[in-house]
Specification:
Helix content is 37%, strand content 23%. It has a seven-stranded mixed sheet with strand order 3-4-5-6-7-8-9. The N and C termini lie far apart (36 Å).
Length: 272
């Protein structure tokens, strides 16, 4: 049921429009880098946790466009911060997969989502390199370039392809590597692509059967988790899955969601 005064379809259209505009900016910069143009790079929590001038430029564009299209609604962004408001709050990752972006690996995206009370009601994830547009509105399904998405239906855990990711903290990466090693012998394989929003979209498309990662921030999952859920995935967000760890994000095809969740717990997910 829609919240009073919230038009999910309209919010989705705004998310798609703004994310697409920011994606064009990011693509231009990415192509410039491939031609030898330098991009300023800084760090955040450590030497491997990078942020570029393009991240900041993309977020400034998103904030500017949202201020024009949805005046007065707060924005929570990875680079510019912010806080949720009483109504609609926009949650923005100006480049999800910045390391991939820097290396020229075309698996990165702009993610824009609308939340009400901390719950995503509309969102878009747009890939600058390919131009693909992933989108969803609550209760209205998930789409890739206008094609409705549906999750996979693996027949067993041993044929389940699982996506994951690793933290910047060395101590946590060590724990995650042990967890992944334990899991690897019980599923088809593991993928680590480097952009949480797109991994969640991959679950929606059936390109992955499941995805689990610890330590994500709201801008990492706000749009992608809604897209996965609207495609039929069972989704658990940080703070809602104690058996997987306090800050775990989990999305899986219903066919294996329960058994895989037990395996993840048995592999030590809660200790990651």
């Amino acid at each position: 049921m829609s919240d009073v005064g919230v038009d999910e379809s309209l919010l989705k259209s705004v998310a798609v429009q703004v994310a697409t505009e920011a994606s064009a900016l990011v693509r231009e910069a990415w192509e410039g880098m491939a031609s030898g143009r330098a991009v300023a790079v800084g760090t955040k929590s450590g030497a491997t946790d990078v942020v570029t001038a393009v991240d900041h430029e993309s977020e400034r564009l998103v904030r500017s466009r949202l201020a024009a299209l949805r005046p007065g609604e707060p924005v929570l962004g990875e680079e510019g911060g912010g806080a949720a408001g009483a109504g609609v709050t926009w949650v923005v990752d100006p480049i999800d997969g910045t390391v991939n972006f820097l290396y020229g690996l075309p698996w990165f995206a702009v993610s824009v989502a609308a939340q009400v009370g901390g719950v995503s009601v509309a969102g878009a994830v747009v890939e600058p390199a390919s131009g693909r547009v992933w989108s969803a509105a609550r209760g209205q399904g998930a789409f890739l370039d206008g094609r409705r998405l549906a999750v996979s239906a693996p027949s067993a855990l041993e044929v389940t392809l699982v996506g994951t990711g690793f933290a910047y903290s060395l101590s946590r990466r060590t724990r995650q590597s042990k967890f992944a090693a334990s899991l690897l012998g019980q599923v088809r394989d593991i993928r680590r692509n480097g952009a949480a929003s797109l991994d969640l979209c991959a679950v929606a498309a059936g390109w992955l059967d499941a995805y689990v990662e610890h330590g994500l921030n709201p801008w990492d999952w706000a749009a992608g988790a809604l897209i996965a859920a609207e495609a039929g995935a069972e989704v658990s967000l940080p703070g809602s899955a104690a058996d997987l760890g306090a800050d775990a994000t989990y999305a899986a095809a219903p066919a294996i969601a329960g058994p895989l969740r037990k395996v993840l717990a048995d592999c030590g997910a809660a200790e990651v």
